[in-house]
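Hi R.,

As promised on Friday, here is the backbone we talked about, encoded as structure tokens. Could you run it through your design pipeline when you get a chance and send me back a sequence?
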């Protein structure tokens, strides 16, 4: 399943770039998958597939039906939980997303932590203001994820919090 998801994500994101304007966007979803597996230690093929697909519905023409058809309803449900409703105004969208994360099953929370971990690592090229916004958004998401987080996901949270502390420290030095 992860191999098919990698190919699917590569096709879906093929013309997109990261915020630096140079890095292919798909490198982000590949890194989120690698973080999920090799940094956080989760090796469930469904989670790895969802890591690879986590931005396809939000950022491409892919819809949930495409994910259900190819990867099943569980993976599609996790991807849906990781997808912001871009039809809503920004503040309402972020509040709804935080509520979804707070109520999500542990795999979704672990995948969001992997997404955050990679975004924090990738924030070095941002302006100080961009890094501050990334730090604030990260705190907001961590506050949503933290309640009812199972013990086996807490080490991932701690790694993200360490990375966030490093970013915040760089802003004050």
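Update: got your reply. Pasting your designed sequence below so it's all in one thread:
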């Amino acid at each position: 399943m992860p191999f098919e998801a990698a190919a699917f994500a590569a096709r879906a994101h093929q013309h997109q770039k990261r915020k630096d304007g140079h890095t292919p966007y798909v490198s982000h979803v590949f890194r989120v998958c690698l973080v999920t597996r090799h940094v956080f230690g989760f090796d469930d093929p469904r989670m790895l597939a969802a890591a690879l697909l986590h931005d396809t519905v939000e950022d491409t023409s892919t819809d949930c039906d495409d994910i259900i058809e190819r990867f099943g309803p569980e993976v599609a449900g996790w991807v849906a939980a990781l997808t912001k409703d871009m039809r809503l105004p920004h503040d309402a969208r972020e509040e709804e997303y935080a509520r979804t994360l707070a109520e999500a099953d542990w795999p979704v929370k672990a995948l969001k932590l992997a997404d955050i971990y990679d975004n924090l690592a990738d924030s070095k090229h941002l302006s100080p203001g961009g890094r501050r916004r990334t730090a604030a958004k990260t705190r907001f998401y961590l506050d949503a994820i933290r309640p009812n987080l199972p013990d086996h996901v807490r080490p991932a949270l701690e790694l993200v919090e360490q990375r966030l502390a490093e970013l915040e420290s760089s802003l004050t030095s």
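One thing I noticed while checking it: The radius of gyration is 15 Å.

Thanks again,
M.
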